[in-house]
């Protein structure tokens, strides 16, 4: 439960926004800091006050020219701080993704948000831009202890937390805000030193490691201004909700913080938690009508168990240097596949829970940079893979949870690009096909493999 009593639905009356940000942007009657009203009464940004950036470069909005396109929202249109726009330009973005265009006009005003979105939709930038813009527009009025967090982002896996932190660092490149990541599997002492010596403006963490630091008062959450819960459904399935509840009890009451919750799916438990943790939240869903992306060509190869490896080897060789992820259900299966691929002189790496965290980070970077062609992963490790231009996803075994099938193949076909997924089904798991088809809402093409040629 929250650290204060939650109102019942019947007692709730619509409210505009919390008093903490009574003069938030977009509110014409109260000009936002650093803004002035024009003759029409709308709010326009005044000339930015000179503040040193991390890079020291002089930059003007005139350096970031993006034409207006019907049906698209430019980042220019959102009245973002110039220092945020400069970082967005340096990252190569011009127009908002659907989730960004839908959520930013509301979150920039201070509203809480419940968002349904798959990975690869741009939701990470959506909540980071809102948080960073808020902190820049409303700087702290007095000095605080290093370990007092302003923004808190909780993610279910180490890989996802580190990728969020990496994107946060890029978006804060031109301002003074500092990003700290607290995740398990990496040096506790190094993270402890960071909390002691660096300002914790934006804290990105996994539940277990964060709770450890918070209980020992190494990081303080009682002044968190903005809380983000990413991939809430995965946190539920991984058993992290008790830890998350304990963490949230350490933060200010929901009326005195901004809360953004994102989830790919919304089972009843997540719906209840979302209502409990947010304050008159706006709800946004950008999930396509189809459970799976239409840009993904899906096929199931029905094979004998002993045929899987030769068929897989042939598939990879026939597809040249395509960037590929192979999903297996168990760690021992990933190890076995990795060894076979390596002995076949295929450029590959393994990503599973038993691999040391520093090596997993290095592996993900190598895969993202194109140094590694094939990645063998388990579902938990694979959940943190957010890499563009993955051409092929292979399910070496069908996942026992049909939802995992959707998450697995969602690693390809991103950003409008075409992708392909190949799933192996043998007599051991073919019975799972109807349930998977029920979840994706369509029949999946099946091909019977009579020999090892594809």
UniProtKB/TrEMBL annotation:
What's the stated role of this polypeptide?
DEAD-box RNA helicase involved in RNA degradation. Has RNA-dependent ATPase activity and unwinds double-stranded RNA.
Alphabetical list of PROSITE patterns matching this protein: DEAD_ATP_HELICASE, HELICASE_ATP_BIND_1, HELICASE_CTER, Q_MOTIF
- Give the region (Disordered) as residue ranges: 1-59
Corresponding gene? Answer: rhlB
Source organism of the structure: Marinomonas pollencensis
Q: What protein name does the entry list?
A: ATP-dependent RNA helicase RhlB
Q: Which residues form the Helicase ATP-binding domain?
A: 104-284
The principal localisation class reads cytoplasm
> Which transformation does this protein catalyse, written as a reaction?
ATP + H2O = ADP + phosphate + H(+)
